[in-house]
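It would be a great kindness if you could assist me with a short task in structural biology. The matter concerns a single protein, recorded as an amino acid sequence and a row of backbone structure tokens. Could you please explain, in whatever detail you think fit, how the structure tokens follow from the sequence? Thank you for your consideration; the sequence and its tokens are set out here:
___
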Amino acid sequence: MSYRPRPGLPVVDAMTPAVLVLAGPVTPGEVTGLCAVVRARLEGCPSRVVVCDVGGLGPPGLGTVDLLARLQLTARRAGGRIRLRDPDPALHALLDLVGLRFEVEGQPEEREPALGVEEAVEPGDPPP
């Protein structure tokens, strides 16, 4: 896989995170360059999020896990984070297996329930 940035300044919208499309199998030699791309995208991104489109990576393996872990580490060191777009269910399962948690685009963030929201209790229900 090769990546060549477009000439000129990137167009940045304050509400839209930067997107990095990852396609094909990524070789170990390309990981350093991709980490540099993530670092550069975070510098010009007020949302401090880089969306990694992983739909084109192919079947997941430990190389993919290593790549995503390194990209996440690079983003964290730069004060940002990675969000995955279109991950294969097998990739999601593999990341869970090795203990890596990634925010996935389209899934709600894991947060506490909103304050003031209570469950309705029917009369006669046993106490919790």
About this structure: DSSP finds three helices and four strands in the chain. The chain has a mean pLDDT of 82. The first helix runs from residue 28 to 43.
